[in-house]
Design brief:
alpha/beta, Ribosomal Protein L25, Chain P, Alpha/beta knot
Length: 240
């Protein structure tokens, strides 16, 4: 829900969501729905008015929603066509806190005018996976500016085919219990050598994803899953 849609115990659905509730979900007054506005709280609400132009509900319960255990940033070289749509959707489901698209020497697309679409995709993905927050989606910027955004992170991982030995797990072990992790993945053409040097000079750690070359829309998502496993799932399993 957009900020301002929830006032006191009353919920007013924006027009597009009102239409979805009434004509797609075919809900009726008295039905209950879960809503959130991205501020960290989840609400159980009972529908009072349901029409394609106006839908309203009354909050009956308030709960803390689910938020990611890590602060993950994905620095993504802007890919061609609609690939970024899938990256944002899957990244949101995997717990990304902010998407930082960047333009580099081998970037073909620039993502001009698509940030609004990416944010809408993030909102829908957050709703689907019951996140209580919505990740930030930044405007595409040059690679140096994107790296500046994660300068204070505990660890910045640079996925690079030129690194042949250091794995993500090894980089995480060497940096202790990182809580703020950034993953940097280049566009379809990868990184130019001078960009790798530039990133490592700023503290980025090159890592390998194995002998196979992954597509740009695959590499970041796979790395996110690996980081989540190493820092969240494996420690949790070991404590049982």
């Amino acid at each position: 829900m957009p900020l301002g849609s929830i006032v006191g115990a009353q919920v007013s659905f924006p027009p597009d969501q009102a239409r979805h509730v009434a004509t797609v979900l075919r809900l009726r007054p008295g039905d209950r729905v879960v809503v959130f506005d991205g501020t960290g709280t989840e609400y159980l609400a009972e529908l009072e008015t349901v029409t394609p132009t106006r839908t309203a509900a009354r909050i009956i319960e308030t709960h803390r929603g689910v938020s990611p255990a890590l602060h993950l940033a994905l620095l993504q070289g802007v890919p061609k066509a609609a690939k970024m749509d899938d990256i944002v959707r899957m990244g949101t489901e995997l717990g990304v806190s902010e998407f930082i698209p960047f333009i580099s020497a081998r970037t073909v697309a620039v993502g001009r005018g698509r940030v609004g679409r990416w944010l809408r995709i993030a909102v829908e993905a957050a709703k689907q996976c019951r996140r209580r927050d919505v990740p930030a989606v930044h405007t595409p910027a040059p690679l140096p500016a994107a790296l500046d955004r994660v300068a204070g992170y505990d660890l910045v991982l640079l996925l690079w085919e030129g690194e042949e030995s250091r794995t993500i797990a090894q980089a995480l072990v060497a940096n202790g219990r990182a809580k703020r992790v950034a993953i940097v993945i280049g566009p379809e053409g990868g990184f130019a050598p001078e960009e790798v040097a530039q990133a490592t000079a700023r503290g980025a750690v090159p890592v390998t994803m194995g002998p196979l070359i992954l597509r740009t829309e695959t590499g970041g998502v796979a790395a996110l899953a690996m980081v989540s496993y190493e820092l969240i799932l494996r420690p949790a399993a070991g404590s049982q």
